Amino acid sequence: MRNGNQWILAAVLAALLVGATWFCVSVWRSTPGMPVYGNVILAVAAVLMLVSGCGLIALMFYSQRKGYDEPPRSNDTARK
Fold first, then answer.
1. Which residues contact 69 (CB under 8 A, 6 or more apart)?
2. Which of 27, 50, 61, 78 is found 20 to 30 A from 17 (Cα to Cα)?
3. pLDDT at 80
């Protein structure tokens, strides 16, 4: 970082990160725990989201590799 403004910005952002982390941890500790079925549902939802996200990214790479993302082109010559 070359000038003082960047250091000030970095310090402010670090302070915000520390404050947000402290707030999240304090709220997390003050709330009651979830029952077991809640943890199971949360885990299943997280796995399904991960699988669907990976699947969509795989489809994106497949589509790009096969050329489906290219603009349409016509092979016909101009009609007279």
1. 63
2. 50
3. 54
Cα distance between residue 56 and residue 62, in whole Å: 10
For tokens 């007279």, what's the residue?
Answer: 80
What span, in angstroms and rounded, lies between the C-alpha atoms of 73 and 5?
51
- The pTM score is 0.52
- Rounded distance, CA 39 to CA 21, Å? 22
Chain segment 12-38, per-residue pLDDT in tens: 999 999 999 999 999 989 999 889 999
CB of 42 within 8 A of CB of 34?
A: yes
Cβ(7)–Cβ(1) below 8 Å: yes
d(CA 6, CA 32): 41
